[in-house]
Amino acid sequence: MNASPIKRLLLVATLGTLVFVAGAGADDINLPDMGSPADAILNNSDEAQIGRMIMRDIRNSGQVVEDPLVTEYLNDIGSRIAAQSNKGDHDFTFFAVDDERINAFALPGGYIGIHTGLLESSRNEDELAGVVAHEVAHVTQRHIARAIHANSRQSLLTTAMMLGAIIVAAAGGSSDAVQGAMAVAQGTAAQQQINFTRSNEYEADRVGIAALADAGFDPYGMASFFEVMSRQQTSSPEMRAPEFMRTHPVTTARIAEARSRAREYPPIRSDDSIGYGIARTRIIVAHFDTAKEAVAYFEARDYEAQNDIERYGRAVAYQRAEDYLGALDIFEELLDKDKSVIAYHIGLGQTLVALDQTSDAIRTFEQALELFPRNIPLVIEYGERLLEMRQAKKAHELLLDLMNNVPPTPEQVRLIARAASQAGEEAEAYYYLSEYRLMIGDLTGGISYLQQALRLPELQEIQRARFEARIDFIQEFMSEEQLKQLRSSRQVGLAGDHSLQ
After folding, report:
1. CA distance 461 to 448
2. Is 343 within 8 Å of 69 (Cβ atoms)?
3. Are 500 and 429 in the same domain?
4. Same domain assignment for residues 99 and 204
C-alpha cells in the first residue's frame, strides 16, 4: 500500500491489528504517526478509528456488559442527549463496564463508558443523564483531540502507553496495573492522561447542562450527582474517594457553578423512565454474589407494596434462582398491565422456554416481534432461545435479518456463527467466525477461518469467490510479520481453534 503511516495505521485499526499494551517495548508496538504540529489535532474520522481500536481492547478485556437491554437503554438516553449538543459531526456509542467503582469516561471517537457502579449509585435518571451529558460534551468539544495535541511533544511510545493505561483503567483494571502503566508513562491517573484541564471540565459542565435541559431532563441533575459524590467523600474521609471524584475533580465552586447554570433554564419535572428502572434493576440483580442474596433483596419488601420495576427485579432474581414458576406469575402480570415494555415480553419468553412450554414461548416472542420489529434485545434473546429449542435455521434467519440492518457487536457475531453451525451452514459459520476474529483484532485468525471454509467440499462457487476476495482484502492490512506467520501456519496445516460452538 502507498498510504501514509497514519492512514495505514488507522485503516488497520478498523480491522483490529493494533493493541496497545502498557509496558511493551518499542519494537512490540506499531506506533501511529501523530503528524506535525500543523496537523496535530486529529480529524473526526481519525479520532473515530482510534476509538474503535481502543474499544476493541476494552471488549477483549471481558469487562463490557453484554446485556442488550442495558446497552440499548444507555444508547437511547445517550443519543437523546447527544442530539442536543452534537451538530452531526460525531457518532456515539454508549456501553456499560462491569465495575462497581463509581465512574464514567469518554474515549476518542465518541465511545462513552458508564461503570455499573455509577448506574447503580445514581438516585434518579436525571443524575445519570447529567454524567452522560458531561462525557458527551468532552467529545463534542474535542477535548480528547486537544489533549493529544497538548501532548504532541511526548514520544510516540509514551503516547501509546498513555492510551494503554486508559484501556486498563476503563476496563476495570486494578489500581496497581494502572499505576504501573502511569509510572512508565507519566505517573498520573488514567483519565488525567488525556489531560482534561480545569477549563475542560467547566466547559463540559456548561455544554452538558444545556444539553440536559434541551433533552428534557432536569438541568440540576448534574449538580445533584456532584453533590452526592462530594458528600460521600466528606462524610467518610477515611474511605477512598469515589472514582468519579478522582477522575473528575469536583470542588464546592464547581458545584455552585453547575447549580447557577441550571437556574438559567426553566424548571423541568422529569420522571424516571421505565428503561432506566429496567437497566438499573438488571445491574443490581447481577451484582449479588448468589441468586439467594438477589432474591432476599427483592423479597425484603412486601410484594403488594412494590412498584412494577421492583416486581420486575424480583422476577429476574427468581429467574437467576431457577424459580421459574414464581417468575412466570410476575411476568404475566406485568405484561398484562403494560405491553409496551419490551423487557416484560423478553422475561416471559425466557421463562416459558425454561419451563419447556415451547409453543407458548414462541407465540410470546412472535407477538413481541410484531410490536417491536428488529428490536435488538428482543431479536438477540429470541435467537438464543431458538437455539435452546433446537430451531437453529429459524434463529440464523432471524439474526441475519437483524445484522444486515444493524451493526452487530462481536458477541452478536459469535451468536450468529453458532446459529449457522447448528443449522448445518458450516461455510457461513466459518465466515461469521472470521468476522468475529477481525472485530477483536486477530487478522491471522480471521484468515484462518476463511481458509478452513475454502476446504469444505460442499462450498458453492459464489461463496468461494467471496471468501477469497475477503482474504485478499485483509492481507492488504497485514504486516510482513503477520504475513510470514500466516504462510508458516499454512505450510504446517495449522488453522487455529475452529470450534463453532
Report:
1. 19
2. yes
3. yes
4. yes
